[in-house]
Amino acid sequence: MVSSKSIMTHIRIFFCLFLINHLVFSQERLSIEGYYQGKSIYIENPVNADGFGFCINKVAVNGDLVPLSIRDEVIALNLSILNIKVGAPVLIIIHHEKGCSPVFINPEVLRSKSTFELSEIKISGNKKLEFKTIKEQGKLPFLIEQYKWDKWVKVGEIQGNGSPTTQSYTYILSPHSGQNKVRVSQIDNTTKKRSSKAITFESNVLEVYKSPTKVKTIISFTSNGIKSKTHFEIFDAYGNVLKQGYNNLVNCTSLVNGLYYINYDNKTEKFIKN
Q1: Whole-number Å distance between alpha carbons of 33 and 110
Q2: Where are the beta strands (DSSP E) in 224-266?
Q3: Total-model pTM
Q4: Is residue 37 within 8 Å of residue 112, measured between CB atoms?
Q5: What is the pLDDT of residues 9-67, one digit of tens each?
Q6: What is d(CA 182, CA 127) in angstroms, rounded to the nearest whole number?
Q7: What pLDDT digit, counting tens, does each position of 115-156 carry?
Q8: Is the domain of 104 the same as that of 165?
Q9: Number of structural domains in the chain
Q10: Does 13 reside within a domain?
Q11: Is residue 102 one of the residues assigned to a domain?
């Protein structure tokens, strides 16, 4: 015969398991990640669906629970008190009740900003770009840009380290003949491009020529009579780029008859497809 004490023990165990199950499965999570930019993030904390109490139960930053008041309609999360350095990665997780939805009011403050400054930029070995930066805040790619064909052209990309201390980067360029001009740029959440000063250098690459002027199928590139690879792009009279690449020839059989323009080496020329 089961004793009343044993029955009460089982009831308590069942009740505790019910509470644990309710607490686990009645909660949801909302998260955001980015890089600390030195600003607080604000969270809208609505009332529970049942009208009693607030939605948010707890907030964790990078895996650690944050001591803050969850009885406010707007919660200010000051990351500086957590000893997080500017530019460091941040993951914020909100644990909240079902039937209600907290909102990150200003999520843009966790998006990396372009703040880099160049402390050095140089070309070595006729094609190796080397540059050093300071004051980076958060990881953003560096765009390697080369000025040719009367415009700045993206020729490569390097992931930034995002540290405010001195950072060093290298990139192997593919120079064209004559004078070359290169810079590095970044685009952040403002969508505005920030660019470094440009550096110029004279390459030892031989001048490239194309043939023929009237094209049936193939355009060939040569230097001193020898086939030579070069970057190129073909566009129509409306500026639409139809072909681009890096090779010693271009197959033009897909182009309809007409007038076209071609950028290659450091030149822009026209040709007729017939």
Answers
A1: 7
A2: 226-227, 230-235, 241-247, 249-251, 258-264
A3: 0.73
A4: yes
A5: 544 544 444 433 444 445 799 999 998 988 999 999 999 988 889 999 999 999 999 99
A6: 11
A7: 999 999 999 988 999 999 999 988 899 999 999 999 999 999
A8: no
A9: 3
A10: no
A11: yes
